[in-house]
Amino acid sequence: MTSQLDVENLDTGYEGLQVVSQVSFSLAPGQIGCLLGPSGCGKTTVLRAIAGFEPAWQGRILIDGTVVSSKTVCLAPEKRNIGMVFQDFALFPHLRVEDNLRFGLKRLDSKAQQSRVQEMLAIVGMPAYAQAYPHQLSGGQQQRIALARALAPQPGVLLLDEPFSNMDAEMREQLAREVRSILKQENNTAILVTHDQNEAFAMADQICVMNEGSVQQQGSGYDLYHEPANRFVADFIGQGVILPATVQSATSVKTDLGVIVGSQPIADEPGATVDVLIRPDDVVHDDEAGESAIVVEKAFRGADFLYHLRMDSGIEVMCLAPSHHNHKINERIGIRLDVDHLVTFSRN
Amino acid sequence: MLVAVLFSLPIFTIASFVLHPSNEVWQHLLDTVLGEYLLNSALLMLGVAIGTLVIGVGCAWLTSVCVFPGKRLFAWALLLPLAFPAYIIAYTYTGMLDFAGPVQSWIRLSTGWGVRDYYFPEIRSLGGAVTMFSLVLYPYVYLLARAAFLEQSVCVLEVSRTLGCSVWSSFYRVALPLARPAIVAGLSLALMETLADYGTVAYFGLGVFTTGIFRTWFGLGDGAAAAKLAAILLLFVFTLIIIERWSRKRAQYHHATNRYRSLPQYRLRGYRGLLAFSACFGPLLLGFLLPAYQLAVWAIETYPEMVDASFVQLTLNSLELAFTAALLAVVLALFLGYGKRVLDSKTVNASIRIVATGYAVPGTVIAVGVIIPFAWLDNNIDSLMREYYGFSSGLVLSGSLFALMFAYMVRFMAVSIQTVESGLGNIKHSMDEAARSLSCRPAEVLFRVHLPLMKGSVLTALLIVFVDVMKELPATLILRPFNFNTLAVRAFELASDERLADSSTAALMIVAVGLVPVILLSQSISRARAGS
Predict the structure, then answer these.
(1) Which fold does the domain B39-89+124-279 belong to in CATH?
(2) A135 at the B interface (CB within 8 A)?
(3) Which of A78, B367, B418, B427 could form a disulfide with B475, with the two C-beta atoms 3.0–4.6 Å apart?
(4) Cβ of A151: how many Cβ atoms within 10 Å?
């Protein structure tokens, strides 16, 4: 048993309503996992079940090899050796920063408490703020203190419940990277809940995409983007369009934009009609190309343009083009396909 | 849940009497005085409604959107009359305005008129009672109306100006309708107090429900008929509670936008400023300054003979009673409030709701509702004792401080629950969970996180219950043990014996204690409004 956290076939919910079914995943020591999904998909409920705020209806949860939740067992949150960072940080407003950090350290003697507090403040880069009250800190500083408070007792697993959702978009990714480096530095096992894929990509080693209470796919950000297991993941992660195509051989399909050859065998028989996922970076703008399409919509994004194009057949695709390729709406531009990963979905 | 059942016992006892078969006494009441009670109560409520509305809404509008000399001072000073229980202001004005009082004496002296040469309004009348109630109860309307005016977005007022309304017509057409739910809520609070009052109406000799209950109980010795009267009074009260709850709910939808800017300040100059000043100064003068001055003058005259060992004993009784009640109410409220937070079950919620209605129920009704089941219990215990042990236990419950304390809990638990609940409500649930995830047991969470965070609201709850018990008259009057007196009861007895000046020391003590929460309240409202 080498994993630090195991969730096995978990069913759970609250107020008598089942919201999660058959969720399984595990994290090795020092790994950072992420539950990613739209709001209401049950990801927070899974996190709360791990923390012990919701009981497991079926299945088991193990922390460091010990069963903490099962149909018959539900260890109280204070006995699970977990740390948690809340969406609203939940710093105790009546305590100074150092007393907030010391809150979970009552088992240590006061000297050890003091040195651990100093150590944590140094790790999060805020040694000067020991005497401050939470309301005197900025959002990002509160975030770091909340993280330090949760890490101070050296929990077996750290749980982060949408920790960046109160931040503005620019700060989010930067903070996510900072938190990741702190966690890696301390070799903490952690699990993050979020609906923001960029946050998930920035922080997690292992991402678990959830929808409607069940796990859709697990893997790295790269895998999820380029090899989505189903239509939900394809749609939820990244952008793209679905094109109809005809299977030509075991590894190739034919679309309006040409033939795409993949490396993996296709499930459907040759001749069958399937859907193909085309990402914006699969469509290359090339004036020499044989195919062309009309610009319907464009969005300038700094380093590149995201074009929405309509082909003569009426099918629309997206195309990522370098930012100096500035075309007008209704202009006709040449495009060709350059697909590294062929992703097909069977009809029905 | 048990607590809730226990505390709703008096209310249900009374309510059950609506269906109770009537006897001759009841028939007699029906034939003779019930009509008078109904008419007087209705007129009283109508008068108080008009009085509190005019004073409360007017002053609230002036202090929230106009600028005139003394505005800042008035914003909080207008709350001061809340410190006066209605019965005390009633004695004070009677003392000042009756035939032998300083005002009429001065008129006779300066004009040389005789007794029957001039008209002077009789203070001890329905009109007098309406005036007294309006003077001390308008702060309820003022408080809620002002809060509503301050919450209104400037935008809606400005829109109405651009659509061609003048300042005053935008008050009538926009500001007033938007504030209406809050004003209605304030008004129903004021009317509940009016219905609950016993001291004033008894002193003025008005036949209304509370006095009727006393007369039937002590005069005719008929508990059942008294309880039936109480049940009718309860009907009035519940109507008011429903109106109040309903308007509070509607008030939530009246937030037009979230954009706040400082309100337009209409600068009133010259005679208009003077007018505004006197409009605000009038209620303050009549509702607080003048009666307080009169009480102080009397107290200075009479205190050498009034302040003796028995007065000290009286004060100690009052303080002891009020302090015990406050402590008990807060502990019970903490217990219920925390229970609700941890369990969050429907039964706990429902029981809190039930307990919370007690505040609206007049003390007289509660007293009658307490004494009936307690007397029944006493009689049963007594007969059991006689049967098995051969001696009589007498009335262990109904004549004791325990009964009184129980009645206080029924009446004032609502206050402590509300305060404690709002204190707990401000502590987010993630706080509990954070503490739990940092290895705290639930009881530890209460002591290490909740109590330190709620120190303020717990103190407020203690204070409010304390003051309310100090002022309480009718329940104390009915339920107190023989020969046990409090300041409020003493003031009432002395005043009833026409020893108005002598009652002033006790009255002044009550007012002084009552001032403390009013000042705290006014401090919190003089702080800035939302968004600024």
Answers:
(1) MetI-like fold (1.10.3720)
(2) no
(3) B367
(4) 24
Supply the range of the domain harboring residue A32.
5-235
Q: CB distance A94–B448 less than 8 Å?
A: no
Q: Which of A200, A218, A235 is the last residue of a domain?
A: A235
- Answer whether B440 sits within 8 Å of A53, measured CB to CB: no
Asked if A145 and A101 count as a contact pair (C-beta separation under 8 A), the reply is yes
Instruction: Say what the ipTM of the complex is.
Output: 0.73
Q: Do the Cβ atoms of A93 and B448 come within 8 Å?
A: no
In sequence order, which ranges of A60-213 are alpha helices (DSSP H)?
97-102, 110-123, 139-151, 169-185, 197-203
- Rg over alpha carbons for chain B, rounded to the nearest Å, is 25
Closest CA to B317 of B482, B513, B484: B484
- The last residue of a domain, from among A235, A258, A293: A235
Number of structural domains (chain A) is 2
Residues of A in contact with B428 (CB under 8 A): 88, 90
Query: pLDDT per position in chain B (532 positions), as tens?
Result: 566 666 666 666 666 666 665 566 667 666 667 778 888 888 888 999 999 999 998 888 888 877 787 777 888 788 888 888 888 888 888 888 777 677 777 777 777 777 666 777 777 788 888 888 898 888 888 888 887 777 765 666 666 666 666 666 777 777 777 788 778 878 887 888 888 888 888 888 788 888 888 777 777 767 677 777 778 788 888 888 787 777 766 655 544 444 444 555 667 777 777 888 888 888 888 888 888 888 888 888 877 776 777 788 888 888 888 888 888 888 888 887 877 777 766 666 777 767 767 777 787 777 877 777 777 777 777 777 777 776 665 656 666 778 888 888 888 887 788 778 777 877 878 888 888 888 888 778 888 888 888 877 787 778 778 888 888 888 888 788 777 788 888 888 887 777 777 778 888 888 888 888 777 776 665 554 433 3
